Amino acid sequence: MDHTMSHRLEGIRQLPMLEECTITRQILDRVGDKWSVLIIVNLGVESLRFKELQRRSGGISQRMLTQTLRHLERDGLVWRKATPTVPITVEYGLTKLGESLLQPLASLVEWVNGNRGEIAKARSGYDSRHQDTELAGYPAVE
């Protein structure tokens, strides 16, 4: 193991357990959810009005988009600007904090893209070994 990896692992070992850190779990849940990732990536390109953001985040309902944007705004990742026009114009963009999340997200996407063949192979092997058998130690899926 190289020095950089050893240093990184030591840093991880020193982090508080996730079960003990509510805000860490909440933020990881937020930035790991599919809608938040799509919204952050879309706003990383440019600030957008609500309907355009909804179009670019294919499949998201108006309610879910509103809810996700509120959560991201509350966490300081997204800003909201309402202009008093008729009808009101609302635009969203990334804050500096939100922009700082783009690189880690890009790294994660890069990792997934670089390993998806190996992951698909592992899934296929797992599925073929576990057809029609209950997994010992795993609860039944209902």
Short characterization:
This protein has 142 residues and is mainly α. It has helices spanning 3-13, 22-32, 34-45, 50-56, 62-74, 96-99, 102-129, and strands spanning 48-49, 78-83, 89-94. Strands 1-3-2 form a 3-stranded antiparallel β-sheet.
Can you walk through the features of this model?
It contains seven helices and three strands; from the N terminus they run αααβααββαα. Strands 1-3-2 form a three-stranded antiparallel β-sheet. The mean pLDDT is about 85. It has about 140 residues and is mostly helical.
Number of strands: 3
Structural class: mainly alpha
Oligomer: single chain
**Coarse morphology:** extended
Largest sheet: 3 strands, antiparallel
Terminus-to-terminus distance: 42 Å
Share of helical residues: 55-70%
Order of helices and strands: HHHEHHEEHH
The side-by-side strand order for the widest beta sheet comes to: 1-3-2
Strand content: 5-15%
**Continuous helix count:** 7
On the 0 to 100 scale, the average pLDDT is 84
Low-confidence parts:
none
Radius of gyration: 20 Å
Task: List its traits.
extended, mainly alpha, 61% helix, 3-stranded antiparallel β-sheet, 142 residues, 7 helices, 10% strand
How is this fold's topology laid out?
Blueprint: H1 3-13, H2 22-32, H3 34-45, E1 48-49, H4 50-56, H5 62-74, E2 78-83, E3 89-94, H6 96-99, H7 102-129
Antiparallel strand pairs: 1-3, 2-3
